[in-house]
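Tokens as discussed.
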């Protein structure tokens, strides 16, 4: 795997994590009866909703899991520790390579 492939694969993981958080927030927003609205062009603020609040990823996952029915919990429950650890590792870790090519080690 070369650098470009490596960067693309890491980007896919980050994209999936962003998508996962967005969908969990959308689920919570709909469960709360909120109407999802995109801001109009030129607006600098948006209403505070489950989509826009400053809840941490861990809080979002805990709230999401708490909203699931017992049947939904069987296949849709998120592993908070695993997701948050992966996201934090990518967000706060340091990539180190012995040469300007893979393999790369991620240090936290």
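Sequence:
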């Amino acid at each position: 795997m070369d650098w470009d492939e490596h960067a693309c694969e890491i980007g896919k993981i980050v994209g999936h994590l962003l998508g996962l958080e967005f969908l969990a927030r959308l689920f919570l927003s709909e469960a709360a009866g909120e109407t999802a609205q995109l801001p109009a062009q030129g607006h600098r603020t948006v209403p505070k909703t489950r989509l826009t609040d400053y809840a941490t990823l861990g809080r979002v996952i805990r709230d999401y899991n708490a909203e699931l029915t017992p049947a939904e919990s069987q296949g849709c429950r998120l592993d908070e520790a695993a997701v948050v650890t992966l996201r934090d590792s990518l967000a706060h870790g340091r990539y180190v390579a012995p040469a300007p090519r893979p393999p790369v080690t991620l240090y936290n």
